[in-house]
């Protein structure tokens, strides 16, 4: 392909069907639906589009940008609304992590002493498996909430 700027290519992509095999001799690359072919009028300067299709492409580009801005705004609004909920949930998750993280050592102590070592080992194993799973789930949720909140606490 001849020297076509990235801006030009991006702009043409709003009105052309395909751009991979375009060459300057083909003229304006915009697809004309009613004709079933490309526009082929002489492009402006060294561009890929004629004046009319350049304007069409610029309008579509502008509309796409506005849509993106609107979506970013919507995301921001949603975030602002959800932030207190995410924070509150993270506090609950942290409290649970504290509780289950602490209970492991307490339970270990409670089981210490009386029972046969092999039974005790099994009990401790079962206990810690449950706790490990619970803690893994909690820490995953904690990480997800922290990502959402975005403070990388
Ligand atoms: Zn054209």
Question: If you had to describe this structure to a student in words, what would you say it looks like?
Answer:
By secondary structure, the protein is an all-alpha fold. A hairpin with a 4-residue loop joins strand 1 (31-32) and strand 2 (37-38). The model is unreliable at 103-109 (pLDDT under 50). Helices cover 66% and strands 3% of the residues. Helix 2 runs antiparallel to helix 3. Residues 28, 30, 39, 41, 49-50, 52-53 line the site of zinc ion.
Secondary-structure blueprint:
Blueprint: H1 6-12, E1 31-32, E2 37-38, H2 51-111, H3 117-149
Antiparallel strand pairs: 1-2
Helix pairs in contact: 2-3
The protein binds zinc ion (ZN).
Concise description?
This protein has 153 residues and is an all-alpha fold. Helices cover 66% and strands 3% of the residues.
Biggest sheet: strand arrangement = 1-2
Structural shape:
elongated
Kindly estimate the percentage of residues that lie in beta strands according to DSSP.
under 5%
Note the gap between the termini.
49 Å
The set of bound ligands, ions and cofactors reads: zinc ion
Average pLDDT level: 85
